[in-house]
Specification:
This protein has about 140 residues and is of the alpha+beta class. It has three helices and five strands, in the order ββαβαββα. The structure holds FE2/S2 (inorganic) cluster (FES).
């Protein structure tokens, strides 16, 4: 599943023009580094083009995405520790979904809706409680 959700407000995004990196901190504190090449965006079909989810999935980072990246769940919740000011603003639809996410912080975003513009390197953390409730069978 993937693509866009016709029932939500369209996010205003700025696709990066320069390479940058995303450091992903997993719940077990191991890290992965994604070198983003703007020429390859969109990397895949899940999440907004250039979103953290789009970039993560194509770089071997296993970020949950129960709704297929269309802003209809909150399993792709990430905490943007650095570089949040280079990301698009969250739409009201994204904020509504985020409210469902456990361990919400002021730096929380939906990975499928959060598109950094490449102005700075970005550090994200995947919250420990970020479980895919659908997959877990709850
Ligand atoms: S994958 Fe469902 S909201 Fe991001």
């Amino acid at each position: 599943m993937g693509g866009t959700n016709p029932y939500i407000e369209k996010a205003e995004v700025e696709i990066p023009t320069k390479p940058y990196t995303i450091t992903v901190v997993h719940p077990d504190k191991t890290t992965a580094k994604i070198d983003v090449d703007p020429a390859k965006i969109p990397y895949g079909v899940t999440g907004l083009p250039g979103s953290i989810l789009d970039l993560a999935l194509q770089n071997g980072v296993d970020l949950e995405h129960a709704c297929g990246g269309v802003c209809a769940c909150s399993t792709c919740h990430v905490i943007v520790k650095e570089g949040l000011d280079t990301c698009n603003e969250a739409t009201e639809d994204e904020e509504d979904q985020l409210e469902e996410a456990p361990a919400l912080t002021l730096q929380s975003r939906l990975g499928c809706q959060c598109v950094p513009n490449g102005g700075k390197d970005v550090v994200i953390e995947i919250p420990a409680v970020n479980k895919n409730l659908v997959k877990e069978g709850h």
